[in-house]
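User: Sequence recovery, please. Input:
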């Protein structure tokens, strides 16, 4: 259980922060950028939820919880030392990736195949889901960059990759099952 009695600690005033294992790193490190951007995704999901209801809102709530799991995973380096840890670190699982894939498959069945790229927009919910999609793509790029330099749980990278696809399909669903998607018209304004 996390207990936050004091919000500011002054321990980051010199530009460093603590990782989940206690190591101190620069606030601009690749690991902090990866999990910090995951937090940004979570904030954009919160905005999308203002316009969601029912099953979509419930799915977004699950995703928000997963994103906290993902942040906990990314803030904890030294995966090879998980067995030695006093408390087992929280790691993303393939089951979380599989759930996203199953939900994507269900959404995609209801959508007509695309014959054009679409522009972010349409309904308010779709616009926010597209924002979620683009921020999750950035989180994925940063996590892949981190994985090039340090060990990263492969399920974390897979989750982010599927997540942006989930947001894309959900945005199309929010646009009247894709019927109200805003289509890109190449060269329309030349």
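Assistant: Recovered sequence (190 residues):
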């Amino acid at each position: 259980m996390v207990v936050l009695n004091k919000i500011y600690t002054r321990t980051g005033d010199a530009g460093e922060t603590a990782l989940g294992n206690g190591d101190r790193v620069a606030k601009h490190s690749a690991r902090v950028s990866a999990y910090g951007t995951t937090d940004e995704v979570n904030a954009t999901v919160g905005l999308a939820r203002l316009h969601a209801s029912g099953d979509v809102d419930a799915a977004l709530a699950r995703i928000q919880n997963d994103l906290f799991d993902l942040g906990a995973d990314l803030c904890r380096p030294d995966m090879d030392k998980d067995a030695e840890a006093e408390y087992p670190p929280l790691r993303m699982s393939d089951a979380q990736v599989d759930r996203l894939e199953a939900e994507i498959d269900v959404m995609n069945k209801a959508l007509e195949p695309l014959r054009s790229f679409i522009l972010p927009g349409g309904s308010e919910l779709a616009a926010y889901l597209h924002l979620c999609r683009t921020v999750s793509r950035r989180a994925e790029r940063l996590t892949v960059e981190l994985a090039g330099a340090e060990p990263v749980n492969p399920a974390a990278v897979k989750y982010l990759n599927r997540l942006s696809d989930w947001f894309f399909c959900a945005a199309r669903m929010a646009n009247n099952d894709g019927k109200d998607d805003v289509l890109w018209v190449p060269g329309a304004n030349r």
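The domain at 22-183 is CATH 1.20.1200.10 (Hypothetical Protein Ta1238; Chain: A;).
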